[in-house]
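Fill in residues.
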């Protein structure tokens, strides 16, 4: 990985589905200091691939079903990523669990967005589980990736109130909207050299951030109407 970021930070986005976060990252690119140089999907039918092509971004499919072993899939994935020589790799709806060996190669250069207030609700069906647990607040987190599923130091979270009559789908949509603000913002911090991981501690402007990550309630997020 190239640590000297002077020109635009080269970003590769790994997807597996709709790619609405990818779209938000693409849309924010003209006013940012990063360039998405490649999009890689483990799913050949991911709609996000069409979004990337429309934006003239090079795409690669590394179809996980074509590999009998995860280690072989990860070797192919690593090669596909390295082709783009990125400064930063983003997981955005990439639905494969990555091994310790894989993740360690990218320490400090691999981010994920997860639709819950981590460490709550790791894994799937986060919105439904938040409702079932009677949570009053819910949201999304961006974190540096460690080998633990949805683990690794949290950088920032968006927090919304759960309405009393909320459905999982409605909650998902509201959280997703905040994700579209959060991810480009954080990628920009990284691209401007403001955000770093040092000995497993998140530094923003050389200052450690709170363990929960920085927290933004929706009222603080300009332009987001809930
Ligand atoms: C998002 O909710 C993200 O937090 C999670 O997967 C979903 C991806 O959605 N990791 P999209 O493909 O970006 O629309």
């Amino acid at each position: 990985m190239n640590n000297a970021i002077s020109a635009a930070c080269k970003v590769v986005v790994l997807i597996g589905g709709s790619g609405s976060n990818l779209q938000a990252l693409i849309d924010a690119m003209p006013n940012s200091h990063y360039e998405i140089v490649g999009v890689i999907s483990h799913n050949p039918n991911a709609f996000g691939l069409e979004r990337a092509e429309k934006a003239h971004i090079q795409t690669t499919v590394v179809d996980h079903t074509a590999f009998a072993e995860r280690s072989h899939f990860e070797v192919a994935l690593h090669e596909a990523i390295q082709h783009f020589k990125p400064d930063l790799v983003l997981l955005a709806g990439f639905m494969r669990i990555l091994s310790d060996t894989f993740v360690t190669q990218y320490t400090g250069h691999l981010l994920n967005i997860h639709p819950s207030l981590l460490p709550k609700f790791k894994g799937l069906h986060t919105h439904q589980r938040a409702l079932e647990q009677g949570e009053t607040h819910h949201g999304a987190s961006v974190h540096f990736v460690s080998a633990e599923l949805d683990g690794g130091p949290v950088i920032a979270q968006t927090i919304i109130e759960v309405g009393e009559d909320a459905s999982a789908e409605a909650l998902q949509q509201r959280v997703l909207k905040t994700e579209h603000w959060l991810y480009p913002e954080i990628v920009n911090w990284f691209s401007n050299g403001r955000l770093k991981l040092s000995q497993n501690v998140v530094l923003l402007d050389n200052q450690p951030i709170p363990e929960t990550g920085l927290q933004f309630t929706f009222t603080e997020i300009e332009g987001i109407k809930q």
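The radius of gyration is 17 Å.
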